Amino acid sequence: MTALWILLLPALGMVVPLLTAKWGRNGCTLMTALAPLAALLVLLQATPSVFQAIPIVSTFEWVPILGLSVSFHLDGLGYLFGLLILGIGLLVILYARYYLSDRDNMGRFYAYLIFFMSAMLGVVLSNNVVQLWFFWELTSISSFLLISFWSHKSDARKGARMALTVTGAGGLALLAALLLMADVTGTYEVRELLQQGDVLRASDYYTVIVVLFLLGAFTKSAQFPFHFWLPHAMAAPTPVSAYLHSATMVKAGVFLMARFYPALSGTELWFVIVSLTGMITMLVGAYLALFKHDLKGLLAYSTISHLGLITLLLGLNTQLAAIAAVFHIINHAVFKASLFMAAGIIDHESGTRDMRKLNGLFKYMPYTATLAMVAAASMAGVPLMNGFLSKEMMFAETLTQETLGALSWWIPVLATLAGALGVAYSLRFMHDVFFNGEPIDLPRTPHEPPRFMRVPVEFLVVLCVFVGIIPQFMVGDLLAAASLAVLQHELPYYSLSLWHGFNLPLLMSVVAVIGGAVLYWHRRHLFHFYGQFADRDAKQIFEGAVQALQTAMVAVNHWLDNASLQRFMFLLVLLALILAASPLLHLHETVGTQPQLALNWVVGLAAMLLIVATLLTVWWSHRRLLALIALSVVGLIVSISFAYFSAPDLALTQLSVEVATIILFLLALFFLPQSSPVIDSPFKIIVRDLGVAALFGSVIGTLCYVMLTRPLTSISAFFLENSVPGGGGTNVVNVILVDFRGFDTLGEITVLGIAALGIYKLLARIPLYMPTTDSKGHRWSQDRHPVLLALVSQSLLPLALLVSAYIFLRGHNLPGGGFIAGLITAVALVQQYVAHGVDWMKGRIVFNYQAIIAAGLLIATMTGVGSMAFGREFLTTWFDYVSWPIVGKFEIASALIFDLGVYLTVVGATLLILANLGKLTTTERLRAGEG
Amino acid sequence: MNVLAIPLLIPLFAGALSLALWRSTRWQRVIAVLATASLLVSSIVLLQAVLQDGYVVLHTAQWAAPFGITLVADLLAAIMVVLTGIIAFVIAIYSLAATPAGHEKFGYYPLLHLLLAGVVGSFITGDLFNLFVWFEVMLLASFALLTLGGERAQMEGAIKYVTLNLFSSAIFLMAVGLLYGMVGTLNMADLAQKIAQVEDQGMITVVAMLFLISFGIKAAAFPLFFWLPASYHTPQVAVSALFAGLLTKVGVYALFRVFTLIFVHDVAYTHTILLWIAALTMLTGVLGAAAQFEFRRILSFHIVSQIGYMLLGLALFTPLAIIGGVFYIMHHILVKTALFLVSGISYRLLGSYELRDLGGLYRKKPLLAILFLIPALSLAGIPPLSGFFAKFIVLRAGIEAEAYVVTGIALLVGLLTMYSMIKIWAEVFWKATPEHTHEQKPLTDAVVDRGHWPLYVPIMILGCGTLLIGFYGQPIFVLAEQAAAQLLNPQGYIDAVLGVQP
């Protein structure tokens, strides 16, 4: 449980600052510190077992099937990082108490900080790769929140965004790498993975894994060329910079490399990528650090350089180098955190971080200055400081390299050069800020900070010195335990001590110090040299790249989606054509074995008419009335063909639908121009569209032909056999509609009802006025309600209603049914509207059409539900025959009630549409139009 | 009693009843909440029944399959119905505060119910033609809802919406006709059984492609998705949230259904095409989003992109991949609805959906900021939120299936999604409220404005959903696993519908 508690305590402590923010700054700080302190104690209590290399693992199932478990382990490496995270974290909490001003939301700041702390602890303690990745991403997010803590500042927002984008992208690469590793080795456990290094190295995916893995690590640890986000993350409050962006979060990348060192390192590929990247980063970081005028900027680039150093060591492929890397992780965290805090103090007390203004501060804050200079000396690698020890180990390791063949001597030379640059910028930090004349118009007169703001710095600086002088005593066990975890087997001999005698590494150190001093002395020339190059701001480049991406996206998007329906349809049909046609290419037999009916002149004529009418519809599509007439011919022939192939029911339905539709169209056309504007598409577009349409049509035609010429056994016979005994009706079509597939009908009448509602709504607000002429200027007839029409239609009404009732009643056994009856009723009523006008009808028929639709739907639904009340399935019908006097034997069927629902819905829906279209022609609207 | 029809009957009945109460919006509101709540309850009852029996089958009108229309709920269908219940309920609550009076007067609530009936009908039907019918119910109801309000942009969007979707319907109908002409049945289980007997399997592939196109349009897959971003940002927000959550998923569901049950005769061909469609859908969707600066349009393009992930699950066609697809659907419905609802509140507060007019919500409305952040991070796939699992499973399935290119695209799309969410976050929440916006309506200091609770509660429910799936992933995963197992073993479905054949 130990490993879990170390993480859980801070995680629970996340809410503490939010709750205690009201208690004042001291109270809040104190309470916030409790949880990390407790976690630190738990960690320290585990020290003996960690140093004896007894693994501490706690595992809980999460989604075990997926290989996802919650699993923590504490080994030397995790212990070392835990110590850094919690120890420096506590110091930062104390420091931030004084750093933050009253305007800052302290509770929120601490909450984010503890959030980060938990996430980072999660990274170092995770024993499951997915879980590790999860915490890895959380560190990115918490860093995002912390960088943008002053979210009103634009560079804070931009810096945060850049950091998240870069580390987030790396995170995804890392996820891919981890998943691949798990796929290759078959385990998600870190501890097990580490044992499978040989399997991984032998795998085909080793290269991919390493590249993706390193992408993740390099982005997080700000390695060249991904280093640019780190300086911009300095927009964060300084405690954040000290904690996340020097001591801990940026170390996550090197942590990861160290963690998976046994599994992935040991190949040429690893060596070349890691060491070269480290070397370049170290040089570039050190070089750029020298020229930063911003105190934190200098430290940021210095951090990059030191991270490069650690990466270089991890890439050197010797065991001693790995140990040196671990050692430098400790040392760098200690001196860099103290330097950042010192920089924060200077900024806090003098109001600026610009080294061109900050001069001679020693006079104003001698104590802080001394501390800062000691830490800077450690950064430079001056003897007696901890930085010196690990740097010298690095020098020693560079001397043993042979990978570059005859040019291997480059490695130590370049390392020394980087060392010299390091000395130079450290000198600049010391000399420029604390001496070098008088300060130049500072916003505030600097003085020593509050007592306790200095405590964290003092503590860390003391550590620097002690580790530097008595290393074996201070960190010997810790280093051994952590190195053991990295190497996973017995450690080679190494000696931690200040003095190793006169040797080559010492000479390199001396050269570096002297060279650095010389470089600093001649900095004027260097600055001049540097000034010749245009200052390329990573933020501008990054934002520019983002903008460019944005522009490119807009362009691509516009190309694909130009908001033209024509284009959409074209793409659609094209895709349909490609997908449907390509399998057809492999089909050799077009004509099947089904015997075909002989062609007679009736069928031939109808087919000819159908084709001609269809073509005319298309041809006349711009002249609406003509197109409509052609369309009605199509409908008519379809109806006739239904009748010809002995489907009178379908024919009747089709016919009544045709009638209703054409009336609708005519009503709509009344308000529209008689011809639609000819769209002047370019000729090639017309050809293109025509071609695609014709091809697609031919594909569908072929499909139908292939399908129809093949024999078929279908379920149709069942319907014929069971219509009377099972459905109680001789009209199979109707029995299918209300019984076999009554469920479809229920859906269809719903569709009809919705359509009516939709059209009603669309028409309700249309500001249309009755046209007095058509679009060509011909006046419409003034005789709006011809007497003859009124008379005839009025006298026809009862007859029509009677017919519809007859059709309705006989529907179950003979052609007819609710749908057709409904349409007949509707058309008869619409005729009255046409003949008499809306006003006349309004006085006579007070219908709420919505209510009729509702009633129809309800009746149909309830008929279905009713059968459930009798213990039957939904929509089950019931019928029986009763003998009435005079009438004789008569059938009663529940299907009839269902059909009544259909009838009502059809009447309601059709009338709602037609009557409302008709309503647009009322006289009030006409007057409104004229007035 | 068979519980299968209840989740369909409730919205159908509620729709008809609301229609009958046309004049009384007050009663319609009451019915809306009651009906959606009972829809949710009945859907959970259904899920339990399915969990118990494996499949729940209802032969309507007591005609044995394949002759009548059979309703079938397997786990996937039951899960979808439950999700419909959840979304319906939260949308109903949200609508109480968000629906303009003019919309209520013109049948907002009846249409809402009927739309839900169409959605549920599509999920539980076991008949291919019946699926068409419910698709039509859905299409017309959604079209009518889209045009409520009748603004110019709405009409433009609605016309594209309805044209392209009618094209989809036409292809669907054609495909059903062709299939019936070849196999002679409409019952999906029966089709699955008889399709192997068809001599020309090439013809089946052609029909499969027609279904792919038809459902692909519904699901907004590449390059058939254009209607979606053209229309989803135009109606009032409860409507777009409902559409965003549910409608495209019906298309995805239909694809899952036919491409696991019926068209598995030539997986190497059909599912490879699906794979590339999935990859391009992911990519074009997310790239399209990067080009947008309107809150709901960004989200709309992300729907497209996320559809790609679901299709990827189907296309890889391994057990794990199908699980991933199912999981993704579940996650996405909750999250995407929540995001649209958040956009509605920000519109309420600042009067715009344009990012440049928005800002300052982080300081003034921290609760809203959190309610945005949870689904946004979930969408981007940040653990431990539901989106992480969804992505993780699909990615892992991709790696195991050795589909590296597509997996790489999926990873990249994840990053771009993150970028998009950050863009919204930075513009809407971080940035100070722009001057010109401020002049109209200053933000109040209240965490939740008076009368806005019905707007917040639904988002909280959905947010809890994504958190719950994240922290308590195992049971949901097991559920998805069982659903996937059923999908990959169509014989169970066939036997449940047709009875075990000797």
**Mean pLDDT level of chain B:** 90
Secondary-structure element string of chain B: HHEEHHHHHHHHHHHHHHHHHHHH
What structural class results from the helix and strand content of chain A? Answer: mainly alpha
Strand content of chain A: under 5%
Tally of contiguous helical segments of chain B: 22
* Total domain units of chain A: 4
**Share in helix of chain B:** over 70%
Q: What portion of residues of chain A is helical? A: over 70%
User: Which structural class best describes the helix and strand composition of chain B?
Assistant: mainly alpha
**Global geometry of chain A:** elongated
Number of helices of chain A: 40
For the residues shown, what is the average pLDDT of chain A? 85
C-alpha termini separation of chain A: 86 Å
Largest sheet of chain B: 2 strands, antiparallel
Distance between the termini of chain B: 28 Å
Spatial ordering of strands, largest sheet of chain A: 1-2
Q: How much β-strand is present in the residues of chain B?
A: under 5%
Quaternary state of this entry equals heterodimer
Rg of chain B (CA only)? 22 Å
- Number-wise, the strands of chain B total 2
Top keywords for this entry?
heterodimer; A: 931 residues; mainly alpha; two-stranded antiparallel ribbon; 4 strands; B: mainly alpha; 22 helices; globular
In summary, what is this structure?
The complex is a heterodimer of chains A (931) and B (502). Chain A is an all-alpha fold.
Describe this structure in words.
The complex is a heterodimer of chains A (931) and B (502). Chain A has 931 residues and is mainly alpha-helical. Chain A has 4 domains: 1-257, no CATH class; 265-490 and 509-521, no CATH class; 561-673 and 684-713, no CATH class; 733-771 and 785-931, no CATH class. Chain A contains 40 helices and 4 strands. In chain A, strand 1 (56-63) and strand 2 (68-74) form a beta hairpin. In chain A, helix 19 (366-380) runs antiparallel to helix 21 (410-434). Chain A is elongated. Chain A starts with a helix and ends with a helix. Mean pLDDT of chain A is 85; it is low at 923-931. Chain B has 502 residues and is mostly helical. Helix content of chain B is 77%, strand content 2%. Chain B has a two-stranded antiparallel ribbon with strand order 1-2. In chain B, helix 3 packs antiparallel against helix 5, helix 14 (319-350) crosses helix 21 and helix 16 packs parallel to helix 20 (453-471). Chain B is globular. The interface between A and B is large, with 109 and 115 residues.
